[in-house]
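explain this:

___
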Amino acid sequence: MAKRSGLTAALIGLAITACVLAALLYHFRGVQALFRNGLAVARAPHASIELIAFDQRGHRLNSLDFFDTWRPTLIVRDHTGAVCYGVQYGITTPRLAIPADERVSFELLWPVSGFGKVLLSADNSGRGYRVSAGAFTRVELVPELARTRVGELERWISHRKEAHPLPDEVTQELTFAHHQLARVDAVHDPRERAALAMPALRAALQASEQTVLADASGAIAENRNGSLLIKIIDPHGTEVPSVKIRVAQTRPEFLFGVGSGNRGYPDNLVARMKQLGLNYAAVDLNWAELEPSAGKFAFAAFDRRFDLANLKHEGFALRGRGLAEGSASALPPFVAPMGGDWRALSRALPAQLAPIIKHYKNLIEVWQIEQADSAWSSLDLNNHTADIIKAIAAEIRKDAPDARIMINIAEPLGEDVAARYNRRLLGVRAGEAPPAADPYAAVQHLASAGVDFDLIGLEFCCSGSRERADLRVQPSAIDLFRFARELDRWSNLGKPLQIGALAFASSGSSASWWHAPADEGVQADYLADTATIAYANPHVQALTWPALFDADAQSAGTGLIDRGKRPKAAYDRLSALLAGWRSGGDVTTGSDGLANFQGAPGDYRLTAQTTPEPIEGTARIHQNSTDIALMSITTIVPLPGPGPLPNDMANPGGQDTGSQPMEPFVLEPPPPVEPPYQPPSPESPPAEPPYEPPGP
């Protein structure tokens, strides 16, 4: 027994020693990286921002502690919002090297007690920081983060529609935030100022989220609405009054979907997707699988697994992804020898992909092309990614002219671009950080280069493992206000948006979190709130959650059904949302034979309670327009819409307009339409430079 106790004590001692050595090694590597950053910064013209920051216990952070707090996301942006040069350096006091004599802002992951650890901005009250070469300015971090969010929110409120009432809580929280910031200005001790500013920052964050949710609630009725004017006539063209018509939506125009990974879409998965109320499916078209050798295609096995024809038959729109990218895992082996010769690739890739595009042209409605240089890194394109994208887009347009082309942005905030500047701190080797350009500027470049595309896809994946966050770039958690602002920013490019992936885990650890560490309730709240904001935005046409089942999810815990096949809270919340956004109801014709129905855009089934038997058919409502359906006693005939009403419908009161009587339409009854789904109830450092105050 004594020997066993001695052995246990020895093992505990070894474990403690190992932990101490690991901590010392980590500390040494961090200090070494900061020192090397300082040497690199000193070799180039730059300006600096010195940051005064405290942890939540009031301890002032040195440079290494500051890095540990924001890791893995620190982004500097120029006056256009594009990611630019920004490097942390300094052994003791944290400093941020920035472009000299240019107006910049910065953002970083920062913990806010009672709210989470999300990406926050500092912008000097909207003016940015302009510092001369060789000089520095000093910024107290938390007071600056609070002032920035208050300013962002007040600018948002000044541009919002007056028809949307501002919640009382927002006014109260903004008043409180201003009061706290006035207290900050009244004291001089930086530690006390930071402590007073933290409640102001929290109140501003909460107020901004409440504002965008209130705006979304009001905007849904405005932006997801259209009219259907229904007229019933008898076989002689006479209007039929007092006819009750049941209107039921069968397929919404807005697309909600999921991915399935490599396992495809078996019947049980399709049934579950329909039960949830989904109408969109992402299909992973792996080129290496579809064309294992040049000119030899393996469609049969893929088609059995995914059965795209069945998905289409079941009413799903399909998005093809993974085909138009140049990662090593997606490319067939015969493509690798062409790497580095972008001219040859711009000819060869479209020609090789053409048979695949033609095979699926009647099934795939949206073809996805990856924008990021990193997605094409294995081809060594030497800054000619745009030329390859242009050539592939032209081939898709030629072979599948009725489909739409989507440029997908995997990291719309530009975390991968910013990480290149701090790769030493993040532990990323030079060869592991492929070239990257600011994604917003890159899409602008694609448009100016003549790339033919219809949609912009954005991915917001606020989940990832702690291990990846320690060494690599990880998408950052963003709050609802930032999410809404990003949608507005990207819509300024003039293309409709799709959210190609929106992921949030229900478990596990992460470098950032929203409101609380991941659990099912937080996941459900984030999904419901971001989906509401996206649905309310008229520029957004679709939203895809990465996986329905945890077993299919690439990031652990991001599915809506756990590994025990139990629906999570997020599943029930999404089911309730989709059911609430579907339209339906009864309308009755007036004396003029007309009935008007208001509902969400999409496809509808109409049932008119006529004698001797009801008549049925289909119609479609388009967004913010009036569509027309003419019903005879035997059928329903949708008229072309949207557009102006025929004269006799535009003048339902019966005044003489000089128009001729409308001839009745009598067609064979349309095929039966599946009734709409009714969801169940939810179950050497450089010498000290001169100091400059923040410029106007």
